[in-house]
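In this section we turn from sequence analysis to structure. A common task in structural bioinformatics is to predict how a protein folds when a small molecule is present, because the ligand can shape the pocket around it. The inputs are simple: the amino acid sequence and a SMILES string for the ligand, here S-adenosylmethionine. Study the lines below before reading on.
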Amino acid sequence: MDKYCKISKKCGGCAYQGIPYEEQLRKKETQVRKLLSDICPVRPIMGMEEPYHYRNKVHAAFARKHDGKVISGVYEEGTHRIVPVESCLIEDEKADAIIGTVRSLVNPFRIRIYNEDSGYGLLRHVMVRRGFQSGQILVVLVLASPILPAKNNFVKALRKEHPEITSIVLNVNAKRTSMVLGERNIVLYGKGYIEDTLCGKTFRISPQSFYQVNPVQTEKLYGKAVELAGLTGKERVIDAYCGIGTIGLIASGRAKEVIGVELNRDAVKDAIYNARINGIKNAKFYAGDAGEFMTVMAAEGEKADVLFMDPPRAGSGEAFLSSAVKLGPEKIIYISCNPETLARDLRYLKKKKYEVKEAWPVDCFAWTNHVESIVLLSKLKSNKLKHIDVELEMDELDLTAAEKKATYQEIKDYVMEHSGLKVSSLYIAQVKGKCGIIERENYNKAKSEDAKQSQCPAEKEAAIREALKFYGMI
Ligand SMILES: C[S@@+](CC[C@H](N)C(=O)[O-])C[C@H]1O[C@@H](n2cnc3c(N)ncnc32)[C@H](O)[C@@H]1O
């Protein structure tokens, strides 16, 4: 039985509240399939076993009500009114408890709450980050000024309730902005960051650095991304939009060289540090705009074998993509949290001699309508057209949208792998016909109308149907 959140309507964070989890997964998979229907086959979505309390980063805005009561939570959609949140089905429970304690300390410590309209007051937000494997906890108090009265006692009181906190940072955000974090950090306790382990590597994560919010799904995401890259140890790999270097460092043991680029300087410092603490010597990280970086690399005639790209929701830009094509990697692994910009960028790459092989949706954001995807692209060989397989007699040339999703050979391979049965193209064509996937006339008919055709046996039909389902064709 799925759990239900009473404040979901006001909060607006979980658009899929009230929808059973299995159905959420189907909706997300269908969404990706629709958006990529003319681009590539979409594999089944990777869902969560326990889709609750997965968010390892929680942040709460603070306000004081007219009666003096302190509340914390999220902004009601489209407004600056705070919806009080004491517990949340997707947030880390320990983080919620820590935010509750900060709330309870505000009045005893006479901390003024920041007022968005007047710009007066001190406490704006609290952000908590928890390492999934390490259990380390970082609390970031976002204040409008660097001075927190009685700060040592405040830290002591917070740690008394939560001795598991490993670091507390005062972040100064004096600007009248909707950005949560300011630029300056003052460490009040501990190291000022947390470390966590992902895919066997340790990562330092500073307050301002990006880190995927769902660690269980992130391991699946990165595992699949590295698997699709099919590295042999000889490759020059680019990790673009690399954050704290996660993907590149995880891939580094199977590559000759890794080059990472990232806009956020704090994240780049983390990436360099992370290479060091993991004893990785074949990775370099650069701070800068990924598009500009790729443009310079391409202009200097550099080459790369594999490109991992994991841009923000807006996707990538023309400068990045056109330079990526010039660098000519054999494979591109595109990781995206926005299937719409993903589809746009894939269309561009498809026109530039890249074959979009397959997409894997991953549910990193249960109960919300967001979905992450990984896509494998491979560079078309110039002689590719000469290698049209005999199976292309079964013609990939005038396929319907559903047909495009898997070739005859892919269906045959799937059937062989999953049921051990060998099936002919004719049988596949017959089953497709039954499923309403329009075939060219001559697939189904023998040359002579009178000639007898063998009919697909029931057992093979069931196996072919299973493959068609797998590829989202029926
Ligand atoms: C979706 S995150 C991915 C980070 C990393 N690959 C990971 O999995 O943790 C996107 C990253 O792109 C960075 N970014 C945003 N715009 C950028 C740009 N124009 N050039 C380089 N990096 C950028 C962000 O700071 C963020 O770290």
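The chain has three domains: 22-49+214-385, 55-197, 388-470. As an exercise, try to locate the residues that line the S-adenosylmethionine site and compare them with your own expectations.
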